[in-house]
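Case 130 in the screening queue. Each case pairs one protein sequence with one candidate compound; here the compound is guanosine-5'-monophosphate. For every case the pipeline is the same: read the inputs, emit a complex structure as tokens, and attach any notable structural observations.

Predict complex for case 130.
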Amino acid sequence: MASIFTKIIKGEIPSYKIAEDDNFYAFLDINPNTPGHTLCIPKKEVDRLLDLDEETYMGLMAFSRKVGLAIEAAIPCDRVGLTVIGLEVPHVHVHLIPLNDMRDATFQHKVPQSKDDFMEIAEKIKAKIK
Ligand code: 5GP
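Case 130 output:
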């Protein structure tokens, strides 16, 4: 069965899209640690990061860097953190999280966003993609 993220790529489930190319897709996390928390995924559905072929792994990191630089330019924060966990959704995803302190990186503290908040943040980040 297709993962929830494959359904997002196909547009079967809505998302606040940030960026897309032939092989990768970036969208806002629906339950963000902080505003601007973004997920970058390969279109190829693979569960575990280290099971990606090297080309896809390197491509995902390059794509995540591009999106991360846009987040850093759009969202006031100390820095953008990058982490891969994958215990919830079995489709590789890189978390890009605007950080100001360690709590922002813990996944214990969440900042609920309204639909308008998500739309505004997505537009701000998209405008900074180079
Ligand atoms: P992990 O698998 O790395 O533990 O976390 C999965 C992440 O995906 C979580 O941060 C969760 O909020 C996010 N997530 C789960 N389902 C959806 C969804 O349907 N849409 C979006 N945008 N994010 C999701």
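Case 130 observations:
- The chain has three helices and five strands.
- The radius of gyration is 14 Å.
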